[in-house]
Amino acid sequence: MRARVFVRLKRGILDPQGTAVKRALEGLGYQEVRELRVGKVLELELEAAEPVQARGRLEEMCRRLLANPVTEDFQVEIVDEGRRPNLP
Amino acid sequence: MRARVFVRLKRGILDPQGTAVKRALEGLGYQEVRELRVGKVLELELEAAEPVQARGRLEEMCRRLLANPVTEDFQVEIVDEGRRPNLP
């Protein structure tokens, strides 16, 4: 089973990396960028039978290790349940 | 318009951060993680009229600034075309 975990700074938390990238883009002429925030994406390949159970385990991993609960939010996505091997 | 840009290490490139996180998860008892890679996700709010044009501009930003073409791949996703304000 393949899954993605997004870890982002919470809304109210300043994102200096995002601000720096936005300014650099403006300097290159990309004035259309109104807001930009940088987060992490973890792409996992899991040995798990049930998507519901896998999602629960992944959320537990986020709370215990992958995200900082004070400053970050997380979101778990099951990308491929591992039952359709020929899909992209 | 909202868009997401994924920037990941290319397949053949070692990901020491991913390996470290995988080992830490194993240490906490999460033996089901077969593979784990860490990438970046940039979430952007754009002033752009056309999704096709916006995608072209974003791919250009990736080539010029956001991704390292030697070690990284990128992927652009238009999340919300800005015409359906009530959808999640």
Sequence-ordered SSE layout with sheet pairings:
Two copies of one chain form a homodimer.
Chain A: E1 2-9, H1 16-27, E2 33-46, H2 51-66, E3 72-80
Antiparallel strand pairs in A: 1-2, 1-3
Shape of chain A: elongated
Please name the fourth-level CATH homologous superfamily of chain A: Phosphoribosylformylglycinamidine synthase subunit PurS
Biggest interface, chains and residue tallies: A-B, 32 and 32 residues
Low-confidence stretches of chain A: 84-88
Largest sheet of chain A: 3 strands, antiparallel
Radius of gyration computed on alpha carbons of chain A: 17 Å
- Mean pLDDT of chain A comes to 92
**Structural class assignment of chain A:** alpha+beta
What portion of residues of chain A is helical? 25-40%
Note the total helix count of chain A. 2
Could you please say which CATH topology of chain A applies here?
Mth169, Chain: A
Number of strands of chain A: 3
Features:
88 residues; alpha+beta; three-stranded antiparallel sheet; disordered C terminus; homodimer
What does this structure look like?
2 copies of one chain form a homodimer. The first copy, chain A, has 88 residues and is α+β, with helices and mostly antiparallel strands. Chain A has one domain: 2-Layer Sandwich (Mth169, Chain: A). Chain A is built from 2 helices and 3 strands; from the N terminus they run βαβαβ. Chain A has helices at residues 16-27, 51-66, and strands at residues 2-9, 33-46, 72-80. The first copy, chain A, has a 3-stranded antiparallel beta sheet with strand order 2-1-3. The longest helix of chain A has 16 residues, at 51-66. In chain A, 26% of the residues are buried. Residues 84-88 of chain A have low confidence and may be disordered. Chains A and B meet through α1, β2 and α2 of A and α1, β2 and α2 of B.
